[in-house]
Every structure is written in structure tokens, then in C-alpha cells.
Specification:
heterodimer, A: about 475 residues, Alkaline Phosphatase, subunit A, 2 domains, about 35% helix, globular, B: about 1050 residues, alpha+beta, 6-stranded antiparallel β-sheet, 36 helices
Chain lengths: ~475, ~1050
């Protein structure tokens, strides 16, 4: 496939090649190609009532894309937006006083109406002057490249309900394909050697809901996320015994493929049998490709320092962020990082809990954007940082050193960068204390519509037929592309 | 943990979004309150206006009558006048409901149309209604709550294919698509399907042969019965239930994930019960209320009573973090909630847990129903006196065993005393013996010194003790002085060991035991918060919706032998009274699901509005009734299902079936499905012959390596491997073994590259492939069919012809060889004259990969190289002899001489207890030339073991390497049974069938290619085995092996 030794130029050239091959256009310039949107759409869309081919071949998007890969730093648990990205003068001013408005609580038993002003200071940063909390000094340095969305809204306080909303498109419901599945279904894979959808799990364990977070739901398992273990070996059984590698293994796989083809011929129409044949081929190429992609030892010292690999607090998450970059660089379509044990779920002792998780993730997350930009990859790579909910402006429990904040699905913050997102801006707003999104509300479905749009997919047109129904990521509910945040 | 408490609540709002209330079918069709309007109000309004006792604004929206009456702002509804109806006004303005979630416009429009048309109801509204959101006739109309009635079999056109009444129901849907069942599967496919389905193991060769041979019309039924009678059946079907019950051998308490030492007794109980075909009503009675059947106090449990105690572990199987700290009331509440979910999943098929915090917003399960259900279990769980996992043990020791233990311990003490006494006597005697060896006058001082206590010894005495260690005689050194002492003491020790071995060991069972006479009140927890109980105590009862309308009743009083409340006993009896609408359907569906890989209802634990509708409702009812009619016998239902045509049909889809039923919704062919993780692992072990069929017992520990990978190193069936919730076994997890948090409703079947990697590179699969290759080689000679196929097979040899051969010869006076004869016996590692060494005929001659041993002067050891091509031969090596005894060895290279038939010496070396380099270059050798590497004993063969590994290179005149023919890697044993036959036999062992057309040729080509690629890389002695092992590994990785068809 790509033989260029420099991986970044490799991704571009390979992507270029694929696009050309996929559309049978020879060497027509990219801009011209992208201009011919009608053709693109015609190529990408499936016939009415039919699914796209259930394979991983790279497909042309439905319209001109801005991004061809996405990294999601999923901060589940509910990062406290009023302490991180959404400064509220009213909240600070009235800290300790009772809030007069309605509050939607999760934990009624510890509910309080007492406002809790952020214990941390905010300052304007960058050219754009976006305000960021002192808890995120590294993120503060990249504000000119990111768009802070302060009006996220699920309408549900519960973790699972909102997580499922973000991943599957319908609140509270599992068994649906996740966003990564939809993207890979719509676009196929750019890498012939690595799974198109990869999940980097945390040493502390799986997130709430476990494997549902990367399930392919009613789509074939071909589109589910492949999980990398949090420590070496990140992919078990990756390496064959020395004398069995190379041509010996090739001969093994050739025989296996032939036996499986003969078996499949006796069972026409069984998609699962077909996809398992493809699975072996992918696994075989993964052996070399993944080992190379996961090997960060040859990254230069300054890159390792950038991600904080030289510090205990940041090493683990930094390593995963760096791996994420190496994966998209090599054509992986969708990479998602999870955390174990809900470290953002600061029901109590937020004053120590929140700084700790910020220390762990701030530098690596910012480094990812900086590094992608340095390599010229940010233009085509979407980066997402955010959780499924935020936290309430009022106290959970008494206002003392152990005070915390309860769940808040009514209004919270995420940030996006790269891949056609307008950097250096803040979008939307919550009310005066930060409880509810009131201006330019963005739901998870709007989020899906927008990100799919940037990847060249139309959330209405991208359909999968299952159980006699046309399925969409938004399940037919209203969703809009948030054009205001597009570059 | 914190987040889960409120999920039920938030979920309901989500449902509204995912399942909008369906509008009346046509624009002109009438809108009615019960069918169209109330469901909307239930989602958006009734929480505050009717659902709870306190009415917001005094307004109750549960009836049209009450809307007209209105609240403190006046009437909410004016029939026929939408514009004057406050209800509509508040919705339209967005004032109501408060908060983010508003009534969607199309539903507001529907309400408007309804009011304009006169706000009609289907029925007159009663004057009095009970508090809360009542269950309406519309709720009751849901399919799953309908009483079970025998469905009328449809008249179909394709009756000739129907073997059972169930087939008839399926044919109805098939003929609607102008389809029928596929033809019956062939007998081999069928026996494989049945064996894997019923036992989770492949059929043995004997079983296949027997079935194929049996022409009797009931051969299939006999086969089914035989499998149903096997313990493997019970293991397999217990595994299905263990998923639903959330079985694990650990507590799931965070990172500790503490092992649960006695869980396995529940697993074993379940296997035993299923093997006996314990009726499901009895099984569930024992699992949910076994303790109530036992008289108290629990003393001297008989084995039957111990089984009942083990059964009650069902209510203790979920994750349980109560030993790990945290706020006990919350953690314990979570355990109870999980347990109730497990019960709900397995028996009720409803998401009862969604009513933990609030009325279930979609299914008719009021908040109070949830706690009434909990009240059934509350006295057993007794949250006020909660028992953490460690304190749930009941000793299984009987009074007789206790007495026996006391008796044995008494005897133990006697023997120990006797032993000590005897030892002291011997010590004294040996001491005396030893001291008597000293001169007379030294004896007394020595005696005094050694007898004096250590801290009372005078300096002189201390010195005496230090300088005479020999007199420090203790029991442990007696053996150095007196054998008789040792013998006498050992006799006592042996007796002691024998006595100890008979001491009864105290065993325990972990269980749930309700204390007699205990009263535990259950109240509704406000918003599910266990710290906020509210209202009056709730009487225990089954779900309202599961009982006939208007006949909601508390559980009848049930006298139990234990003197407990009897709630659980009464509840289980009511579930299995044959009239419960859910239980029969849920159980029948689960059994069907496990046979076909999919259910009639695809959401086996959710028969509610959020679940999936049954694909064949009449079939489901039919099976549910059959189950009850046959006394809740699982085996009877298995027989019914397995007898049917739908089960026996082929899995190959016809073109028609593919076109008209691509998803196989109508069962137009048997559904192909992947085997579960455990079956894949067990099937591999069965194929290799390594499977250890031992039944029952403590779980086999699955160790975690330094990298955190958990790999089982046992040949037991997978059901016996330890299940740690947080440390899943790598291979099983990669093939979707369930994550038990708390239980698994239904297995998924994923296809990830990690599975391919497990099969390609995983240690388990590789080791089993080698094992299988050994089995193939050992057993192939008995497979006459395979041998015959091999005979008929033509083609070039698969393995390269060995360049080396092994023999012995006499030496001529000139030092040349004559009378070369091959060594006749291969030990598996070396060549020699016969099974015995020295061989009676040729003595000590032997050759192995590195070297060997010559015989006497008349029997030199000869390693013979046959040159494969013309060229120049270079031989380099080191001759080693490692003994100072004897006279060493002599090595010679004997090569073709100048004339045909002539031989010549090309080198000679001699060595004793040392080593010598041997180097030779032979110009102009020709293909077929023979080079003998000869070692003889000189004069005597004493201690003549030698090593002589040779690096041999054949070069062209230009110096290009033509072949590497090293003596060590080129070493090989005799060629085994025909590799073609081995391939045929491997197919039979793996797939249970003979090779298909063209298949053997494919496998032979593969082996030839691999042999060529591996030759020279691995020792020739293992080349054949490696090639067959690679073949076996591929067969074990095929879809044919991983799927049932």
C-alpha cells in the first residue's frame, strides 16, 4: 500500500490514491474532485432500500469532506464545565447563596440549592481570548485551534442514558451502532492493515456500559471497535513464533481462506462467514502494521515530552494520545480513548478530584492538537474532547471541603478541533449560573450531524436497513449541522 | 455506581423519543382518550398530575372527567372547544410540562383534534379510581400479558413437511412468502448439530459411525435421547442458565474482585439437576426458596439438604461489593437490585429494574409493584442485618462427622505422645551408646553438660557442648545412628498419617437462609433511594400485570418446614401454576433461543414495549403450553423441538429463500450461527483428544500473567474454569464470553481481528494443534478409509527425501566400510539396533541428532549422506568424546573412489576425552554419491558416546550454495504413516466427515509447500509433525469448525 517512510506524507498520498482509485478518476486534482459533489453523492449513496456494501473498502463520501479521521477523547463521568470552560460571574458572586431557579438533580438525597462558585480562576487566552480555567494550562495554549461548545445538552442526567445518546444516537438505548461504526460503514477503511475503528481502553478498566461503547449494534460486527489493551501487549497474540512468520503464515492463511471459501459456497448469503474470511486477512496485516503503529520508542524526545511521557501523572494518557495520533496517521478512521472508573464524576471532594484528573489529561490532550497541527494533519483530523454530561452549579452535599457537584445533562461543554472546525471560538451559552444550555443548544444528535457532515456524510442519507427499517444514527429525530462552528 | 441509581428514571424519557405514540391510522379514524391521548399524558404530565398522591395545582389528568373538573386554575378541558381548554393552551405555550422536554407538535395536534371531536373515551369512566397511574386495558392488551390459550393450528398447504405441531405454525408464515422448509439436513450435519447443541461437544467418531449405520426409523430419536442422557448435556445447558443467572467465582468488588470459594456448588447443583431433568418448577423453587424447605435449626445437613442450600446461591450470584466498604445501605441495595434484575431476566422477561425509582414509563409496572416484588425476598436478604459474602457460610459437617473428628483428633494426640515417648527413649539410648565411646572419666561431665538446661550451663559445660556436637542427638538425626530407631518411629508416623487422612474435613456451602419468624417490612424507596423509604409497608406480591385484571392479590400464606414467611415458596408456586402469562413464554423462548441461536422473541429478557415482538407468537404460546403440560420438563421440550422439521432442515439457503427471506426470519433454513466461546475451546480440546472430562468440583484457577493476560492452563471443560468478573480468560473473552455485570441476557457473536489472532498465534491453539497432530499420527493406521484414499493418491512426495540415512558397517583392514546395514529401530529420538541396548546382534551402535555411539570392533556407526546434486561438498565439524575411560573413538569419512564401485578415505580423526576439528572438501561429487561418516570404537567400546555434528554445504563449481545438508537439522526418524492419510484422518477428527472432493489435494499441496519452506529451519525429526500440526491448526480455525450449520 504505502511505501513512503515518512508516515504523514504517507497518509496523504495514500488517501489520495484511494480516493482516485475509488472514483476511477486517474489523476484529476483533488479540488476538482471535491467540486463534483453530485457525483460524489451518487457514488457514496446506496440504492434505495439497500445497504452500502458490507465491507471495509474505502468509499467515496456523500459530499466533499473536510476530515477523513477522528479522534475522540471521551471524558465520561461529567467534566465540570463551570470549573473548566464556562466561567460564570453570577455563580462566583452568589456562591453559597440559594439558587432561585429550577434544578434537575440526580441525587435528590444530597441535593442542595446552594450555589457553588468555581474555586478556580479563569483567564482569557490566545488571540481569540477564550476563557479557560487555571486547571487546564495546556489546553489554554491551544484555544486558537479549538472551538469550545458551551451549550451541549442531552436532557438526561444519568451517565448511561447520556453516554448511549452520544454513542448510539438514542438516549438510554443500547444495541445500536456507535458513531465510529456509522462512520466506518459510510466511508470504509483507509487502512488495509489496521482496524478502521479502534478503542484505547484505560488501565483502570472499561467505562460504564463496557463493550456497548464500541458496539456495532444491528450492523455486522465488521463495524465494531477493536479494543487495544491498556498495557503491553496491547494486542495479545499479535506476533507469531519466529519460524512461523512470513511465507509459512502466508501459506496458512491461503489454505484457510480457500477452505473457508469452499465452506461459504455451501452457505450462500451468510454475511458472517464472509466477514470472518476478511477478518483473517486483516489480522495478518495487522501483525506488522499494528506492531509498528504501537511502537512509540522511536518518537523523538521532544514529542515524548510534548505528550508528558516524562512525567508519572501524564505518561499513561499521553502514551495513548500519542498512539492515537500514530493510528490516524496510518489511516485509522476513528479512534476513541476512554477512562476507567469515572474520574470526572466528582460527586464529592471536587476540590481534589478535579485537579487530579485535569493533571492526568490536560497536557496529553493539548499535545495531540499541537502535534497534529505540527504534522499538517489537523486540517483533516477531527479532535473531540468531552463527556456525556456536565455538573450542576449547586453543591452536592454540604458546602465544605468534601463538597461535590451532581450530574447535569441540561448544559455542559465540549471542545472540537481540526477537520473543518473553526478554531479560536466559543459557541453557545448556558444560563447565568451554568445549569442549562440556553443559547444555540447542541444535542448529541446535532453533534453527530455536524461531525458526520465534516466527514462527508449526511446523517439523513446514511442509512442502514435492519429489521425491515431504515436506521439512521439520529433515529429520525431532528438534528442540524451546526454550521456556525465550521471553518 | 452512583450513576446507575437514576438510570431507570432517565430511561423513560428516552423511550418517548424512540417510540412515539402511534397516531390513529387514518386522518378520519376516531381519536380516543385511552388509546391515543393517555399514553402521551403518561409520559409528559401524569408524574405531577395524578401519578403521585400530591396533585400539582390540584389538577388530575388521569380521566377526562377529572380534566373537566380541573384544578385550582379552573377546568382543564372543554369538550369540543380546544381554544378554551387550558390543557392544550399550556402545552402550546410551552409552559407545560416545565423543563426541557416538551410535547412534540404532532402530539399536541392530536390532542387538539381529540378535544375538537368531543374528547371521547372508549368506555365510561368510573367514579372512583385508585391512587397512582393505574394499569389500563390498553396496557393489558400487550401480547405478553395475554393469558396462554392453546393456539389454533393453521391450515397450511405444506403439511407433509410438518413433523410436529410447532412445524405447522412455522409453515404458515413460510407459505405466506411462498416458501417452505429446506430439505432435511444430511445425517452427518444433523449429528454434528445435535451433539454441539445438546452437549457442547462434537460427536465422537463412534457416535457418527453408529448413527450412519443405524437404518431404523427412530435412529434420530435414539440419538437425541442418548445425548440428553449424557452428563455433557447437563454441563452445556447449565452453562446457558449460568449466563442468565450471572454466575461467577468472584464478588466483583472493584479491583480486588475477591474469589467466591463456594460458588461452584451452585454450578454443580445446577448440572446435577439438569442431568436429572428436574422439572423447572421444582428447580426454581429450590433455587429461590430451597432454604424454606429445610427444617431448622440447620444441623446435620444430609447431602440432599446441602444441595438445597447450594441451590439458594441463585439469589447471591450477582456482583456484591458489600465486603469492600462504602455506604452499606446503598451497596447492599445495589446487590438486591441486581439480584432482582437476575430474577426478572430469567423468569419474568421484563425490565422490572426500571421501576426501581419511578413507575415504569412504558411497561405497566408501577413503582409500588417493584417494591412488592422486593418484599418477597426482603426477609431472606434482611437488609437491616445484611450479611457480607464472607458470612454466608453454612457448615456441612454433620454431628456424626464432628464426633468422628473429635475421635480422630484424640487418637492423633495419643499417637503423637507415643511417638514423642519413643523418640525420647531412642535419643537417650543413642546418647548413652555414643557417650560410652568416650573414655570412662569424661562420660559423667559430658552427661551433666548435655543434661543441664542451656541457660544453666557453666562455662566449662558450654564448652563441652560446643566441642562435642556429635552428642547433640535429636529425633531428626536419629537416622544417622540407629536404623531400628528410625523404623520404629516411622511405623508410628505412618499410622499417624493414616489416621489423619481419615479425619473429616469441614466443608461449607455459601447460601441464602431466611431466619424463621423474621418480619421485614418493605416500603417504597423514594426515587429508588434506599435511605428514603416512604409510605406504608408493602405486602409481597407478584407484578399486578401478571395477574388477571381486578384479581391482584397478595401472596397466599405458605407454611414452610423452616417456619419462615414462605413468601418465596408461595411466589414460585404461583409462577408455575400454569396460568402465569410470562413465565412459560419466557422459559420456552429461552430454550428455543439456545437451540437456534436466536429467540422467537429476540429480546429474551424484555417482553415489554421496548423489547422485540415475537416472530411467531402462536408458536411461542404453543411451546409455553407444552412446557407446562409436560410437567415443566426441559428434556421434553428439547425432544419436541429437536424432533421438528424446522430443526432438522438443512442450513443451505435456496435461491428463493435468499430472495424472499434474506434474513431467514421465517426459518426457511436452519440458522447458521457461531459457536459460543466455551464450545469452541471445548471442541478444540475434544478434537485434539486432550479433553479432561472430569465432572464437578472447585473452579480451575485461571492464572494472570505479568502482562495481565489470563490464560487457562487446563484441559477441563470451560464451564469448570474460574470466572473472575474483572479478569476474563483471554481466549474465552475474545469469543464473547459474557461480561457479568450483573448477568448476561443473551450472548453476542462478534467478529474481531483479535479472534483471528487467537487462532493464528495463540498458545492454546498452537499447543492443541501439535497435540492433534500426534493423535492423527498415532490413530491413522486404524483408519482404513484414509489409508485407502492415500493409496489412490498420486503425486510427488510431500516431504523432501531425506539426504541422510543411519546404519552400521564392518571396517576393512584398509579402514573402509563394508556391509552397510540400516539401523532397524527408532526410539522417537534416536536410531539403534533394537528395542534393547545393547542390541544382542549389533551391540551399542546408536545415532542421534548430535552424534551417537559405535558398537564393538565389528560394528562401526555410519551416518550416510546421499549427495543430491553434482558439485563440491564441504564438511566441517567437531568430533567430541567426553570420557577418560576406554580408548576413545575414531572418525573417518569414506567417499567414492576414483573408479566406479571403489571407496576411499577422505579424512580420519581420533579423539579421547576431548575434541578435534574435522574438515573436508570433496571436489566433483555427483548426484547419488554416498558419503559415509563412520565412527568406530578402536579397540574397546567402553564409554564411547560421541558427538559429531557436521555442517555440510554443497556448492556449484562457481561457489554458489546449492544445498545445506547439516547433519543435525537434517536428522530424521523413519517416515510416518502416509501424510495423505494423516490429512484425511485430521479432517475426520476435526470435522467429523471424510474429505470432500478436491480437499485432500489442497491439503497435500499445503503440506508440501510448508515442508519445503520449513526444511532446514527445524529439525527433520519434527518436520513431519510440524507440517501436520500446521494443517490441524488451519482446520481448527475454519468457519466449518467455528460455526454450527
Amino acid at each position: 500500500m504505502w511505501t513512503d517512510n515518512s508516515p504523514h506524507s504517507g497518509r496523504h498520498s495514500r488517501r489520495w490514491l484511494l480516493r482516485q482509485t475509488a472514483m476511477g478518476f486517474g489523476s484529476v486534482a483533488l479540488t476538482q474532485l471535491l467540486a463534483s459533489e453530485g457525483l460524489l453523492a451518487a457514488e457514496g449513496a446506496a440504492k434505495p432500500g439497500e445497504n452500502l456494501p458490507l465491507d471495509l473498502k474505502a468509499r467515496s463520501p456523500q459530499h466533499a469532506p473536510r476530515a477523513n479521521a477522528m479522534i475522540s477523547l471521551f471524558m465520561h463521568g461529567g467534566p465540570s464545565h463551570v470549573d473548566l470552560f464556562d466561567p460564570k460571574a453570577e455563580l462566583t458572586k452568589n456562591s453559597g447563596k440559594d439558587y432561585q431557579g429550577d434544578v434537575g438533580y440526580s441525587f435528590v438525597n444530597r441535593a442542595s440549592k446552594k450555589l457553588l462558585g468555581s474555586p478556580w480562576k479563569f483567564r482569557k487566552h490566545g488571540q481569540c481570548g477564550t476563557e479557560v480555567s487555571e486547571l487546564l494550562p495546556h489546553t489554554a495554549r491551544i484555544v486558537d485551534d479549538i472551538c469550545v461548545v458551551r451549550s451541549m445538552h442531552t436532557g438526561h442526567n444519568g451517565h448511561e442514558v447520556s453516554i448511549r445518546y452520544f454513542h448510539g444516537g438514542v438516549a438510554g438505548v443500547t444495541g445500536r451502532p456507535t458513531m465510529g461504526s456509522w462512520i466506518v460503514y459510510g466511508l470504509g477503511s483507509e487502512s488495509a492493515n489496521l482496524p478502521a475503528y479502534m478503542v484505547l481502553s484505560d488501565p483502570e478498566g472499561h467505562p460504564v456500559d463496557g463493550t456497548h461503547n464500541w458496539s456495532s449494534g444491528f450492523m455486522p460486527p465488521l463495524y465494531q471497535g477493536t479494543v487495544l489493551r491498556p498495557k503491553e501487549p496491547r494486542i495479545p497474540n499479535l506476533v507469531p513464533q519466529a519460524e512461523m512468520a512470513g511465507p509459512v503464515q502466508r501459506a496458512n492463511l491461503d489454505l484457510l481462506a480457500e477452505l473457508n471459501r469452499r465452506h461459504a459456497a455451501l452457505h450462500p448469503g451468510e454475511a458472517d462467514l464472509e466477514s470472518r474470511i476478511a477478518g483473517y486477512e486483516l489480522a495478518s496485516r495487522m501483525q506488522t502494521a499494528a506492531a509498528e503503529a504501537l511502537d512509540i520508542s522511536r518518537e523523538p524526545e521532544e514529542v515524548r515530552r510534548l505528550y508528558g511521557l516524562d512525567h508519572d501523572a501524564t505518561r499513561e494518557y499521553g502514551t495513548r494520545c500519542l498512539i492515537a495520533r500514530r493510528l490516524v496517521e496510518r489511516g485509522v478512521r476513528f479512534v476513541q480513548l476512554f477512562l476507567g472508573g469515572q474520574p470526572w464524576d466528582n460527586h464529592n471532594t471536587i476540590k481534589t478530584g478535579l485537579p487530579a484528573i485535569c493533571r492526568r489529561t490536560d497536557q496529553p490532550a493539548a499535545a495531540l492538537v499541537t502535534d497534529l497541527k505540527r504534522l499538517g494533519l489537523l486540517d483533516t483530523t477531527l479532535v473531540h474532547w468531552g463527556g456525556e454530561i456536565g455538573r450542576l452549579p449547586v453543591c452536592e452535599g454540604p458546602l465544605d471541603n468534601a463538597v461535590g457537584r451532581d450530574h447535569n445533562g441540561q448544559g455542559f461543554t465540549c471542545w472540537l478541533a481540526g477537520g473543518g472546525i473553526k478554531g479560536g471560538m466559543a459557541f453557545g451559552a448556558t444560563d447565568e449560573v451554568g445549569h442549562k444550555a440556553v443559547e444555540n443548544v447542541v444535542t448529541p444528535n446535532d453533534f453527530h450531524a455536524t461531525l458526520l457532515h465534516l466527514m462527508g456524510l449526511d446523517h439523513e442519507q446514511l442509512q442502514f436497513f435492519a429489521n425491515g427499517r431504515a436506521m439512521r444514527i439520529t433515529d429520525g429525530r431532528k438534528a442540524r449541522v451546526v454550521r456556525e462552528i465550521l471553518a | 455506581m452512583l450513576g446507575t441509581a437514576c438510570i431507570g428514571f432517565s430511561l423513560f424519557a428516552a423511550l418517548v423519543a424512540s417510540r412515539p405514540v402511534s397516531p390513529p391510522s387514518g386522518a378520519g379514524s376516531p381519536v380516543r382518550f385511552e388509546t391515543h391521548i393517555r399514553p402521551v399524558l403518561r409520559v409528559y404530565c401524569l408524574d405531577c398530575h395524578g401519578g403521585e398522591e400530591k396533585l400539582q395545582g390540584g389538577l388530575d389528568l388521569r380521566q377526562v372527567r377529572l380534566m373537566e373538573k380541573g384544578g385550582k386554575d379552573g377546568p382543564a378541558l372543554d369538550k369540543g372547544k380546544p381554544e378554551a381548554s387550558l390543557l392544550l393552551d399550556r402545552m402550546k405555550s410551552g409552559e407545560m410540562p416545565p423543563g426541557e422536554k416538551k410535547v412534540p407538535p404532532e402530539q399536541i395536534a392530536l390532542i387538539e383534534r381529540w378535544i375538537r371531536d368531543g374528547a371521547a373515551t372508549l368506555r365510561p369512566e368510573p367514579e372512583k379510581i385508585d391512587p397512582g397511574v393505574a394499569i389500563t386495558p390498553e396496557d393489558r392488551a400487550w401480547w405478553a400479558y395475554q393469558p396462554l390459550k392453546a393456539p389454533k393450528p393453521p391450515a397450511t398447504t405444506a403439511q407433509d413437511r410438518a413433523r410436529t405441531s410447532g412445524d405447522v405454525f412455522l409453515l404458515e408464515a413460510l407459505s405466506a412468502k411462498n416458501l417452505g422448509f429446506a430439505p432435511d439436513a444430511d445425517k452427518r450435519t444433523l449429528i454434528r448439530r445435535v451433539a454441539l447443541d445438546l452437549t457442547g461437544l462434537p460427536p465422537t467418531r463412534e457416535e457418527i459411525a453408529g448413527f450412519l449405520r443405524d437404518p431404523s426409523p427412530d435412529a434420530y430419536e435414539k440419538l437425541v435421547d442418548a445425548y440428553l442422557a449424557s452428563p455433557a448435556y447437563a454441563e452445556r445447558w447449565a452453562r446457558h442458565w449460568l449466563d442468565v443467572f450471572g454466575y461467577a467465582d468472584s464478588d466483583g468488588d472493584g479491583t480486588n474482585d475477591s474469589p467466591r470459594p463456594y460458588s461452584y456448588k451452585f454450578r454443580d447443583y445446577l448440572i446435577r439437576s439438569i442431568e436429572k431433568d428436574k422439572p423447572l418448577n421444582q428447580l426454581f423453587l429450590e433455587m429461590l426458596a430451597g432454604d424454606e424447605l429445610l427444617p431448622r435449626p440447620l444441623k446435620d445437613p444430609t447431602p440432599q439438604q446441602a444441595e438445597l442450600l447450594a441451590a439458594t446461591m441463585l439469589l447471591r450470584l450477582g456482583p456484591d461489593a458489600t465486603a469492600a466498604g462504602g455506604e452499606q445501605v446503598i451497596v447492599a441495595d445495589q446487590v438486591m437490585a441486581d439480584s432482582l434484575k437476575i430474577v426478572g431476566s430469567s423468569l419474568l422477561g421484563l425490565t422490572v429494574g426500571c421501576a426501581q425509582c419511578h413507575d415504569h414509563k412504558y411497561d405497566p409496572i408501577p413503582h409500588t409493584d417493584y417494591f412488592r416484588l422486593r418484599a418477597i425476598f426482603a426477609p431472606a436478604w434482611n437488609p437491616a442485618a445484611w450479611k457480607a459474602p464472607g458470612s454466608r457460610m453454612v457448615s456441612l459437617m454433620t454431628e456424626a462427622q464432628r464426633q468422628e473428628r473429635a475421635r480422630v483428633e484424640g487418637r492423633e494426640r495419643e499417637l503423637v505422645a507415643a511417638r514423642d515417648k519413643k523418640a525420647a527413649e531412642w535419643i537417650a539410648k543413642v546418647f548413652d551408646d555414643e557417650i560410652n565411646k568416650f573414655p570412662e572419666k569424661e562420660r559423667q561431665p559430658l552427661r551433666d553438660a548435655f543434661k543441664a538446661p542451656a541457660d544453666k550451663r557453666t562455662p566449662e559445660q558450654k564448652k563441652l557442648v560446643e566441642t562435642n556436637p556429635k552428642l547433640n542427638i535429636s529425633a531428626s538425626v536419629l537416622y544417622q545412628f540407629n536404623q531400628k530407631a528410625v523404623d520404629e518411629l516411622k511405623k508410628i508416623d505412618d499410622e499417624l498419617a493414616a489416621v489423619r487422612a481419615k479425619k473429616p474435613v469441614e466443608d461449607f456451602v455459601s447460601c441464602l437462609v431466611e431466619d424463621p419468624g423474621l418480619k421485614v417490612e418493605t416500603r417504597l424507596n423514594h426515587r429508588g433511594d434506599p435511605r428514603q423509604p416512604k409510605g406504608k409497608p408493602l405486602a409481597p406480591s407478584d407484578l399486578t400485570i401478571a395477574q388477571p385484571e381486578g384479581a391482584r392479590s397478595d401472596l397466599p400464606a405458605e407454611k414452610t418446614p423452616a417456619g419462615t414467611t414462605g413468601y418465596r415458596t408461595a411466589w414460585v408456586k404461583s409462577l408455575f401454576n400454569g396460568r402465569h402469562p410470562l413465565v412459560g413464554r419466557v422459559l420456552a423462548n429461552r430454550i428455543w433461543l439456545n437451540h437456534f441461536g436466536r429467540g422467537i422473541v429476540e429480546s429474551p429478557s424484555d417482553f415489554g414495549q421496548l423489547g422485540r415482538l415475537p416472530s411467531h407468537p402462536a408458536l411461542l404460546d404453543h411451546l409455553a403450553l407444552e412446557l407446562a403440560d409436560k410437567g415443566w420438563s426441559q428434556k421434553a421440550l428439547h425432544r419436541l423441538i429437536l424432533r421438528s422439521t424446522v430443526y432438522r432442515q438443512s442450513s443451505a439457503a435456496s435461491a428463493d429463500a435468499l430472495a424472499r427471506d434474506p434474513g431467514n426470519v421465517t426459518y426457511s433454513r436452519f440458522p447458521v450461527h457461531r459457536l459460543e466461546a466455551e464450545v469452541i475451546r471445548d471442541r478444540i480440546l475434544a478434537a485434539s483428544g486432550a479433553l479432561d472430562p472430569t465432572l464437578f468440583g472447585p473452579p480451575v484457577v485461571t492464572p494472570e500473567d505479568a502482562a495481565g493476560l489470563v490464560n487457562a492452563n487446563s484441559n477441563r471443560r470451560s464451564i469448570y474454569l474460574q470466572v473472575r468478573r474483572s479478569r476474563p480468560e483471554t481466549m474465552l473473552a475474545s469469543f464473547d464470553a459474557p461480561v457479568l455485570a450483573p448477568n448476561c441476557d443473551k450472548r453476542v457473536s462478534s467478529n474481531a481481528p483479535t479472534q483471528a489472532l487467537v487462532l493464528m498465534n495463540g498458545e492454546f491453539v498452537r499447543a492443541q494443534s501439535i497435540q492433534l497432530a500426534k493423535r492423527v499420527r498415532a490413530e491413522v493406521t486404524a483408519n482404513t478409509q484414509a489409508l485407502a484414499q492415500a493409496k489412490a493418491f498420486t503425486g510427488p512426495p510431500i516431504l523432501p527425501t531425506p539426504a541422510w540415512s543411519y546404519g552400521f558397517a564392518r571396517l576393512t583392514p584398509q579402514g573402509l566400510t563394508e556391509g552397510f546395514a540400516p539401523l532397524a529401530h527408532w526410539t522417537g529420538g534416536q536410531w539403534q539396533g533394537g528395542t534393547q541396548l545393547p542390541d544382542p546382534a549389533i551391540g551399542w551402535v546408536l545415532l542421534h541428532a548430535a552424534g551417537g555411539h559405535p558398537g564393538d570392533k565389528a560394528h562401526a556407526a555410519v551416518r550416510r549422506l546421499t549427495v543430491p546434486a553434482d558439485g563440491l561438498l564441504e564438511l566441517n565439524g567437531t568430533l567430541k568424546h567426553g570420557s577418560a575411560n576406554g580408548d576413545g573413538v575414531r572418525a573417518r569419512l569414506i567417499v567414492p573412489g576414483g573408479k566406479p564401485g571403489e571407496r576411499a578415505k577422505a579424512g580420519q580423526w581420533q579423539v579421547k576425552n576431548g575434541s578435534v576439528q574435522t574438515t573436508a572438501r570433496l571436489q566433483g561429487v555427483h548426484a547419488g554419491d554416498v558419503v559415509d561418516c563412520v565412527v568406530d570404537c578402536l579397540e574397546t567400546e567402553t564409554s564411547d558416546g560421541f558427538e559429531w555434528p557436521l555442517t555440510v554445504t554443497l556448492k556449484s563449481p562457481e561457489g554458489k550454495v546449492l544445498a545445506t545438508l547439516n547433519s543435525s537439522t537434517g536428522f530424521s526418524g523413519p517416515s510416518g504413516p502416509s501424510l495423505v492419510a494423516q490429512a484425511a484422518h485430521a479432517i475426520e477428527l476435526v470435522h467429523g466427515r471424510p474429505p470432500r472432493e478436491g480437499e485432500l489435494a489442497l491439503l497435500v499441496d499445503f503440506m508440501r509447500l510448508q515442508a519445503r519452506q520449513l526444511a532446514g529451519k527445524i529439525s527433520g525429526a519434527t518436520l513431519e509433525e510440524t507440517v501436520v500440526a500446521l494443517l490441524c491448526q488451519q482446520l481448527l480455525s475454519t468457519n466449518e469448525f467455528l460455526y454450527v450449520d
